[in-house]
Design goal:
Helix content is about 40%, strand content about 25%. By secondary structure, it is an alpha+beta fold. The chain binds adenosine-5'-triphosphate.
């Protein structure tokens, strides 16, 4: 299966098993908006818990808040979103499809990179052990030609982006002869700026309505509550404020399922520090966040940092943690050193003094800030896409299994009476009563035991517990492990401890 096919299958699997549905599907859906189903919400809540507890419990100096989606319109002026939260748009006149000009150019560059990588792969095959990639890249004429093309387009692209030159972006698209993937033509409109914020109106007096925005990030809620939290929590710098919540962006290129949505959830933490110490903290949070990801056991090789060369005007360092999604390495989380940009601008626009008195140095200053910002939905997609496997079994059959890290699995245990009679359902209910206070469970007595196992594999349940006739005598049950499919006989009295050991979130947190 190619990665692209795998992705399609994954989307279908998410729907079939109640993880994710298109929003308002009975009306044919709404582009780039998705609902989480009965299992999706459990997985999502578990990811949230892993993040929230890692942030607020394992760091004595990080506290959480829950601010509103609606905020004073001036917030978005201070943050720069009204003026600059734009994407460069271009339309194809034949297909009437709209694209992000920067994405068209980035896709073009990615194709050149792909060509070079293919050439390298060919070289590797040809030269075997003796292959020297660096030398090959420096001398192979095909690679050199592609590299020259790449460098030329890339430097023009960076310059156009930096100077916000929309004409230059259009010129690159024309010069590179980029065509619309739908119509296949080069019949483009000019490039225009498009603000990504959704707006609505709040009725204040009945006479006039004030335009307000749906927040495009949760971070600003933290900045505007900074003073309240610092004072009421008697927080001493360095300290952080964490928040999980919805954000809204009118994305043009809304594709790749829940990777890029118009309504999504972010888990953000702003860490306030003494000016001049931000680089130390930036480094510390880079390490801490990578560790949080790798701790899930989804393979350290599937993560990489992508340091930004081009920094936003308010940042003095920025990196992305990229994950190896089925469509390649893409941003999962951003870590930014945002200086005092946000707090200073809110101070200016609100007229409030937003400063911190540092009793250690005897100085007052506007704190600097290091931000960690992860998309909850992207994290969900990372977990699911990594977990989805089709395995060939020894008996010639195959099974679909979601090897979701056990503490995140939506259902932890399935209790399955072998027969629907002879007192087995009653004993199975007793087992359920033992487990239900601590573990999300499913009780299933329909179909053959094999089919029931397959259903649980397909939703990633770490344990299946089968109650059989012998259980009535020996008070033991058969426990099947999702990953190894091994079965062991366990006394009912020991079941809770056995499950807990593997699925307990505290154990996962303890390894951090
Ligand atoms: P991208 O470059 O992919 O558009 P971004 O750099 O605009 O992302 P940030 O503004 O840094 O993203 O947002 C922080 C995180 O929020 C991202 O790392 C991503 O995980 C998540 N995120 C951003 N936009 C979306 C979206 N439209 N849908 C889902 N998650 C998103």
């Amino acid at each position: 299966m190619t990665q692209e096919e795998l992705f399609k299958v994954l989307v279908a699997h998410c729907k079939e098993y109640g993880f994710i549905f298109p929003s308002s599907e009975i009306y044919d859906g709404l582009a780039a908006v998705y609902d989480y189903g009965q299992l999706g919400v459990e997985l999502k809540n578990n990811i949230k818990r892993y993040w929230w507890e890692a942030m607020t419990r394992l760091n004595e100096n990080v506290v959480g808040i829950d601010s509103c989606v609606f905020m004073h319109p001036k917030v978005w002026v201070a943050s720069g979103h009204v003026a600059a939260f734009n994407d460069p748009l271009i339309d194809n006149k034949d297909s009437k499809k709209r694209y992000r000009a920067d994405v068209l150019i980035e896709d073009y560059l990615a194709k050149i990179e792909e060509k070079m990588n293919k050439e390298v792969a060919k070289g590797k095959k040809r030269f075997g052990e003796a292959f020297d990639e660096a030398q090959f890249r420096a001398t192979n004429p095909n690679i050199l030609r592609e590299k020259a093309k790449y460098d030329e387009v890339h430097s023009r692209y960076v310059a156009a982006e930096e100077s916000n030159d929309l004409k230059a972006l259009k010129q690159i698209i024309e010069d590179c002869e980029i065509v619309c993937p739908i119509s296949g033509t080069k019949n483009w409109t000019d490039v225009r700026q498009f603000n990504l914020m959704f707006s609505t109106a709040i009725s204040n007096t009945g006479e006039s309505d004030d335009k307000i925005y749906l927040r495009p990030e949760t971070a600003q809620g933290i900045f505007v509550d900074y003073l309240n939290v610092q004072k009421t929590g008697r927080m001493k710098i360095p300290f952080g404020i964490a928040q999980i919540g919805k954000a809204f962006r009118n994305e043009i290129v809304a594709r790749q399922f829940i990777f890029r949505m118009r309504e999504f959830e972010q888990m953000e933490m702003e860490f306030f520090v003494r000016p001049g110490t931000e680089m130390e903290w930036f480094k510390k949070w880079k390490e801490t966040r990578l560790k949080w990801h790798v701790n899930l056991g989804m393979g350290a090789e599937n993560y990489r940092f992508h340091d930004h060369e081009k920094l936003a005007h308010y940042a003095n360092a920025a990196t992305d943690i990229e994950f190896n999604f089925p469509f390649g390495f893409k941003e999962l989380e951003g870590i930014h050193s945002r200086t005092d940009f946000d707090l200073s601008n809110h101070a200016k626009l609100s007229g409030r003094k937003i400063q911190y008195f540092d009793s250690e140095t005897g100085e007052s200053y506007t704190p600097y800030c290091v931000e960690t910002s992860i998309g909850l939905d992207r994290m969900f997609l990372a977990v699911l896409s990594h977990s989805y496997k089709v395995e060939e079994l020894e008996n010639g059959e195959s099974r679909v299994v979601l090897s979701i890290p056990a503490p995140l699995a939506p259902i932890k245990v399935a209790v399955l009476p072998l027969l629907k009679k002879n007192g087995l359902p009653e004993l199975a209910q007793e087992v359920v009563n033992e487990l239900k206070y601590d573990f999300a469970y499913q009780y299933d007595e329909k179909d053959s035991i094999g089919r029931r196992y397959r259903r649980q594999d397909a939703i990633g349940t770490p344990f299946c517990v089968t109650v059989d006739m012998e259980s009535l005598e020996d008070h033991c049950v058969t426990v099947r492990d999702r990953d190894t499919m091994e079965q062991v006989r366990v006394p009912i009295a020991e079941l809770h401890a056995m499950i807990d050991k593997k699925v307990n979130m505290s154990n996962l947190l303890r390894n951090l």
